Amino acid sequence: MAYITFEELKCILLTWHKMKPILEVHAVSKKFNILHQGQSYLSLRDRIVGLTKLKFSNTNKEIFWALRDVSFNVMPGESIGIVGKNGAGKSTLLKILSKITPPTQGKVICRGRIASLLEVGTGFHPELTGRENVYLNGSILGMRKKEIDAHFDEIIDFAGTELFLDTPLKHYSSGMQLRLAFAVAAFLEPEILVIDEVLAVGDAQFQKKCLGKMEDVARRGRTILFVSHNMAAVQSLCRKSILLNKGSLEFIGNSNEVVNKYLDLAFLSTEFKNGSVEFNSSADMNRIIKKVELYCNGSLSDFPHMGCQLEIKVHFCSPKPIPYPVLGVIFRDSLGTPVLGINNNHYVGNVASRPLQEGDFSFIVDSLPLINGSYSVDIHFGDNITDLDVRRDCMNFVVEKMPFSKTGVLPDEQINKFFVQDVTWRVQ
Predict the structure, then answer these.
(1) Is the pTM of this model over 0.70?
(2) Number of helices (H) and strands (E), helices first, in the chain?
(3) Is residue 226 domain-resident?
C-alpha cells in the first residue's frame, strides 16, 4: 500500500487551492432607494422637522438598481480590468467586493485578503502623522505589525513622503495622500489588490510609476482588479476585462475585445446629441453642471473639424455663489488617454471678478489643435480650491479632417496627436 508524505500532501492541497477561483461573484445585485421631495434644497431645520412628518409628506421613493445579476470568477494571479461608462456600476461593484457595502442580492466568495484603493484618504486619519497612518491603514487591511515593519522603508521611499513622515496628514496635499495610500496597498502584499480610478488624481509621472508597480505585483502572481477610463492602461495591465453597462455585465473576455466593445458602446449610447447634452434627471437636481454645448465656428456640432474655432459652453447653477468660478476641460482620445487638459486658472485675466451663482461659462480656442479622430471630454467645475462638480465622459465627438493647404495633404495620423494650422517657413 502506497503512502504519500506530508510534503506531497501539502503540494497537492496547494495545487488544488490554486485551481479554485480566488474571487467568485454570484448573481450580485445592488439596490438603492432615492427619495424625491418637493424642495430641491432642505436646511438642517427642515430635515429635523421632516422626520416627524415623513409619513404624511409628498415624498416619492424611486428604486435604482446600480447592479443587476452580475456574475464572474477571478482566478489567482489574474489581472482583470473593469470598464464602463459613468454610472455603469463599477465603483459599486468594487465597494461590494471590498465589503464596504453589502449586496442586495447574490453573494461574493473571497479566498484571500483584499487591499482597496477606492478614494483618496480612505483608511487614514487626518490628525495622525504619516508614520502613524501607515500602521493604521496597514492594520485596516489586515496586516500585522511585523509585516508593516518589514515593508515600511519601501512604502515611504515609493511614496516620496520621508520629509513629512511625522507631519499630521491634514497638512498633506491630495497627491501626497494618494501616493502614501497606494504604497501601503501595493507593498503590504494582499492576495487581491483593488484599484479604482483614484489614480487619476496623481500626476503623469506618478501614474506611470503606479502602473509599473502594478505590473510588478501582477508578475508576482497576485490578483488585481483595475477600474480605469484609460483604455491604454487597461490593455497594458490586464489580459482579461469586464464591460459593465447600466449595472449589467455586458461582456467579459480579452481586454482588446472588451475595449473595442466599450468604445462602440460609448459612442452609441451617449446623450450628447446635436452638439448638446442636458442633465435634468432627479439624480442631477443638486449638481452644479446643468448643460454642456459644443460649437464649431459658432454652430452646434457633434463633428467639429480640424482648425475650427471650438467653443465648449457650460451652463451652471449653484446652491450658493461661487467666489472664483473655475472651468476645467480634459480631452481624451479613443483609448481614454488624456491628450489635453486646461482650465481658466492657467490664463491671466480669465477669472470672474465677482461671485457667481448661475450663468454660462465658455472655453474658446481659435483653432482646434486636435488631429482627426474620436474624442471624449470631462468637465470640471469648481472654485480656485476644489472641484464642486465633475462630469466625466459627458461628450463624445469626432474631429473631422479639414484640408488647410493647397495640396490638401494632412499630417501623418500615426505620428501626430495635435496639428498646428499656422506655421511660418523661412529659407535663407
Answers:
(1) no
(2) 9, 18
(3) yes
